[in-house]
Amino acid sequence: MTALPLHRVCFLLQVRPERLEEYKTRHQAVWPDMLAALSSAGWHNYSLFLRPDGLLVGYLETPDFAAARAGMAATEVNARWQADMAPFFVALEGRPDEGFLQLEEVFHLD
């Protein structure tokens, strides 16, 4: 059986500078049901990187990003998590998982 090719996805958000420490603390204890939902929906090798000024860079791999986003949007735990996380972000319209800036991949070294 051949594995589906993975798409690499990178995105940006801006965390409020005054909430950086709390944001990091929250991500040291992500809810177990949220972690399970992400895995089930196809979010693999998912990482978040935070710059001292609050620039947040997210990275994940998935066979189908539209399906992975839809899978998460259909879960109750994601709705709770997004509502809980929304106040951490600057200039956000809607939920954090809907308001990030997805970056175009221009190079990859295997």
TrEMBL record:
Coiled coil: none annotated. It comes from the Bacteria. Pfam families: rhaM (PF05336). InterPro entries: Dimeric_a/b-barrel, Rham/fucose_mutarotase. SUPFAM superfamilies: Dimeric alpha+beta barrel. PANTHER family: L-RHAMNOSE MUTAROTASE. This is L-rhamnose mutarotase.
